[in-house]
Amino acid sequence: MESLAKRQLSNGLESFVNKKYDEAINTLKRAVSLAPLSSTATQAYDYMAKSYLSKGNSQAAIESYQQSLRSNPTNADSYLALGNIYVTENQIDKAQSMYEQAVRLEGSAANRYSLGQAYLEGGQYEAAVAQFKLVKQQVPTEPNGDYGLGLAYAKQGKTDEAISAFRQAISLQKDFWDAHVELGYALMDAGEKDKAQEVADTLSDNTASTDLAGTLNQYIYEKTPAEMMSVYAASTFQRTLGAGTKVADLGDYLVDAGGQQTFSMVFQFSKQMDESSIENVRNWSITRSLNTGRGDAYNFGIVLPSTEVSLSRYPVSVSYNAEDQTATVLFRVDQNATADGTIDPAHIKFSFSGTDVLGIAMNPKADQYSGFNGFA
Predict the structure, then answer these.
(1) Are 120 and 155 spatial neighbours (Cβ–Cβ below 8 Å)?
(2) Domain locations in the chain?
(3) Pairing relation of β-strands 284-288 and 348-352?
């Protein structure tokens, strides 16, 4: 019977290789029925499950492995294969249970690595670290232990440890491209944009990893804080005029006492911004520059004359144009009661404290503007 079972197994494998999956399944079932408790049956169940997976029937594949384990409960490979299916089905708890069984039966580095990955998926980061450390001990000249540790540390927010682990993995296998890209992610999370870009450039230089380079470049772009880059010429506020400028010189509606006029500043941003954040006037502020650098302060730090007018802290309104990534800030200037108001337009500071479309805060080195200092 064992000899007949092996013959059916051979025929089933041939059908599987030729992608005749239904034929393979039927033949492999016959092999199981001929010698249900043999190693031949275990192999038949394995390829039966693979045939079902090739047909897109994961539930039947699961049942095949379950039947295999009922007849041979000490086969670590079947637990591992079943765990792999549960991972693809996003049934992480079941996958962990299967991998744990595989490790109990055979504590190989490969089985521990799979268990560590399942712990990662389930958010059990310390348990994952423990498994990856054991992998590293078992196969110290291979990169998977360090790579797994890097993933676990990154999940825990331990970016320095993650960077070190990924670099160690790469030192053991130079073309471990997944480790390269994860290193790039960790560097970017640590604020090391230039180093992350170097990793992306390395990936771009190798044809086998160009897709990963594109993914990392996108991550770098997304994680790079937005900046205020330029002011459109369409802005109507004469922002370069200096201290002592007569308010009446800014616009015709400001010639008379108590006059009012609305002006605009159109700012270009470096990336796509969150529209609701941009258009929330409370995320903007219009203030006098208090910088202490040479010539940076409002009115150059000289005591203000009694004629100096003040602007409202918040704009009247802000509108966002997603197509060209610009914000138009509208604000009002009021003439004083004696029509002799003065202002220092070059030292009026416009600041934005909102977020980009991904919710990332502005670069604090480029979130404000004044006519005198430019962007800072």
Answers:
(1) yes
(2) 2-223, 228-375
(3) antiparallel
What phi and psi, each to the nearest 5 degrees, are found at residue 298? Answer: -60, 135
- The single-letter code of the amino acid at 283 is N
Please compute, for residue 79, the number of CA atoms within 13 A of its CA located in the half-sphere on the CB side. Answer: 23
- Which of 210-214, 293-297, 310-314 shows the lowest mean pLDDT across its residues? 293-297
Question: SS3 letters for 293-320?
Answer: CCCCCHHHHCCCCCCECCCCCCCCEEEE
Residue 98: CB atoms within 10 A of its CB come to 26
Which of 234, 212, 139, 350 shows the shortest CA–CA distance to 148?
A: 139
Taking phi over 0 as left and psi of -120 to 50 as alpha, with beta for the rest, 311 belongs to beta
Q: Does residue 367 sit in helix, strand or coil? A: coil
**331 DSSP β-pair partners:** 263
| H/E stretch holding 243 | none
Tokens of 39: 């190693």
| Token pair of 192 as six digits | 């090391």
Beta bridge partners of 288: 348
User: What tokens were used for 111?
Assistant: 């089985």
Within its chain, how far is the Cα of 92 from the centroid?
A: 22
Q: How far apart (Å, rounded) are the C-alpha atoms in residues 199 and 193?
A: 10
Span 316-360, pLDDT tens digits: 999 999 999 999 999 999 999 999 999 999 999 999 999 999 999
Can you tell me whether residue 54 is helix, strand or coil? helix
Number of residues in the chain: 376
Task: Write out pLDDT tens, residues 103-114.
Answer: 999 999 999 999
Cα 173 to Cα 133, 144, 147, 176, 184, distances in angstroms: 18, 10, 11, 6, 16
Tell me, which fold does domain 2-223 have in CATH?
A: 1.25.40
- In this predicted model, what pLDDT tens digit does every residue of 85-107 receive, in sequence order? 999 999 999 999 999 999 999 99
Amino acid letter, residue 326? T
Q: Please, what is the Cα angle at 205 between 200 and 210, to 5 degrees?
A: 65
